[in-house]
Design brief:
single chain, alpha+beta, Rossmann fold, S-adenosyl-L-methionine-dependent methyltransferases, 2 domains, eight-stranded mixed sheet, four-stranded antiparallel sheet, globular
């Protein structure tokens, strides 16, 4: 998770990754958390002016409030039980300034998820070749993704696998979680990448 605060005192918390580090460093003051120490370290290297720590989105306390809390790139999907989602949303709310907003990009809904899909991404550099291939499966209300990485360097080729499980939640279930956390979100079915977006504005009174 990464957290940013705008230099002109507009606070933003993106619980996500940084793609445009120079822009963010210039416009925002940054706070960040990630459950993986390696990712927090990468964020700190990319945004030297930021403040990053290792924490869990379900239970963290930065001692700060922000104008916007962003939880993007479907990170919320790794919380596989409704009570975990409610705990995270409640934590977001506690870090929100009066009149602020919470924005969450979900993982796929049960209807959107397709079993048996194969995806591939590649990196092609002179001394580094990477192929990441994945297949999709399902176990009840959990989506399952197995990633295979082929990593080629001058010294040889390495094969690494990762298994990911993310919850498949309907819009109604997500909105129920927002409600239990005291947030009144609106659902945009399209969102940024077609997975939808949940936006709560000003649930914390000014």
């Amino acid at each position: 998770m990464n957290f940013t605060t705008k230099v002109d005192a507009t606070d933003v918390i993106p619980i996500t990754r940084f793609d445009r580090e120079e822009y963010i460093s210039r416009i925002f003051r940054v706070d960040g958390i990630d459950i993986q120490p390696e990712f927090a370290a990468i964020a700190a290297e990319r945004v030297p002016a930021g403040r990053f720590s290792v924490a869990d989105m379900r239970d963290f306390d930065l001692g700060l409030r922000h104008d916007v809390v962003l939880c993007l790139f479907s990170s919320i999907g790794y919380l596989t039980r409704a009570e975990q989602v409610v705990a995270a949303l409640d934590c977001f709310k506690r870090h929100l300034n009066p009149g602020g907003a919470v924005i969450v990009e979900p993982w796929f809904s049960p209807e959107q998820w397709k079993v048996g899909m194969v995806h591939m991404l590649t990196v092609d550099q002179p001394e580094l070749k990477i192929c990441r291939m994945s297949t999709s499966a399902r176990k009840g209300r959990l989506s399952q993704v197995r990633f295979h990485y082929l990593i080629g360097r001058p010294g040889g080729v390495e094969h690494v696998t990762e298994d990911h499980e993310l919850a498949l939640c309907s819009p109604e279930e997500m909105l129920e979680c927002f409600g239990q956390a005291g947030l009144a979100a609106e659902h945009d079915p399209e969102g940024i990448f077609g997975r939808g977006l949940y936006v709560d504005r000003a649930s914390v009174p000014e």
